[in-house]
Design brief:
Elements lengths: L4 H16 L1 E2 L1 H8 L3 H14 L3 E6 L2 E6 L5 H6 L3 H9 L13 H12 L4 H8 L5 E4 L17 H20 L1 E9 L4 E15 L2 E8 L4 E6 L3 E10 L24 E7 L1 H9 L7 E4 L5 E7 L3 H8 L5 E5 L1 H18 L1
Parallel strand pairs: 4-6
Antiparallel strand pairs: 1-3, 2-3, 5-6, 5-9, 6-7, 7-8, 10-12, 10-13, 11-12
Length: 339
């Protein structure tokens, strides 16, 4: 069984029961594409986690239902069970704000929300796959202000609609047919994709998907999707989907395998470099002259090279040699533009 398939199916059962009010085991099996025996095991597992599921007989048929307002605390918040659960497991979306003044308030808010759930329910929700994920911007200040241009209402509506379709396709393993404006070729292309997750990174929303035509995973910017539709074709997610999107890149790239990269930073910006989180693997080593050596385990991709180039004469690649050669080539090309 593909990793996370069970918990995705069980989450779908909860959503189906809430939206349909009541369903038979046969109906749930048809919706999820598994046997009735599997559905019975899923229902037992959800009940054991604390979800208020119960069965009742109507007109000779046995139906399963989800109690809509089972908790006093839930009534006080005004949230439905699905709303509260969605807020709880999507808390990863606000990790991008972890280094802002909102961090403490957000943590407090989620603590209050989680208190309305039983320990078993929290444990179940913690297992939900990261269909939606957030990647903090490289260089986020430990305590500062995160400002950005706000999208227009029309752009927000379009993004929301696309994201909703993508989440639906990801949860239910449905292939997507889409028209996409490719940045590399600067033209519109048609794709059939198998979406694995959505990721919010560097101010944009991206979908990580498998492209059967090319036999590889690719990343697509949601804002460059010109049109999409969910097909009735199902797919089985690969077992080797990374637990974290773009884990080895400073940007939004799948990247090459990570390697050890060491960069020298001049004394005048050493403190700035050390105060910020560029990558989870970073290690800083102070030098006698006040400079710093920053070592990271990252992919040698466009995001890394552009980050280094942004410091001009204040940064120098120590290793690996091939990265140093690439940076030198880029600097010489840039110099030629000004000569």
């Amino acid at each position: 069984m593909p990793r996370n398939a069970e918990v995705i199916r069980q989450w779908s059962i909860l959503r189906d029961l809430e939206s349909s009010r009541r369903l038979t085991i046969d109906e749930l099996a048809a919706r999820t594409g598994v046997s009735t025996r599997t559905i019975r095991r899923d229902l037992e597992a959800l009940q054991a986690s604390g979800f208020p599921l119960y069965d009742d007989t109507h007109d000779g048929k046995r139906y399963w239902m989800l109690e809509q307002r089972p908790f006093r605390r839930l009534d006080e918040t005004g949230f439905t069970l699905a709303e509260l659960s969605a807020l709880y497991f999507s808390r990863t979306l606000v990790e991008a704000l972890a280094a802002t003044p909102f961090h403490h308030d957000l943590r407090s808010a989620f603590d209050k929300l989680s208190s309305a759930l039983t320990p078993g329910m929290r444990q179940f929700l913690d297992r939900l796959p990261l269909v939606l994920q957030a990647k903090a911007e490289p260089g986020t200040v430990a305590a500062g202000d995160a400002a950005g241009a706000a999208p227009t209402p029309r752009e927000l509506a379009a993004r929301s609609a696309r994201a909703a379709q993508l989440v639906e396709a990801t949860l239910h393993h449905r292939r997507i047919s889409m028209r996409y404006h490719s940045m590399s070729s600067d033209r519109e292309k048609a794709y059939l994709i198998e979406p694995y997750r959505l990721v919010f990174a560097q101010g944009g929303l991206y979908v990580v998907a498998y492209v059967p035509e090319y036999g590889q995973q690719r990343t697509f910017a949601v804002d460059r999707i010109l049109g999409l539709s969910l097909t009735e074709e199902r797919f089985e997610p690969a077992d080797d989907v990374p637990a974290e999107a773009f884990a080895h890149s400073l940007g939004v790239h799948q990247g090459t395998p990570p390697q050890t990269v060491t960069i020298w930073f001049a004394p005048r910006i050493a403190r700035y470099v050390k105060e910020r989180v560029w990558h989870a693997s970073q290690q800083a080593e102070d030098q006698p002259d006040g400079s710093v050596h920053l070592t990271l385990q990252v992919s040698n991709d466009w995001a890394l090279r552009s980050w280094i180039l942004g410091y001009g004469p204040l940064a120098r690649v120590i290793s690996p040699p091939e990265l140093a050669a690439q940076i030198l080539d880029q600097l010489e090309r840039a110099q030629a533009l000004y000569e």
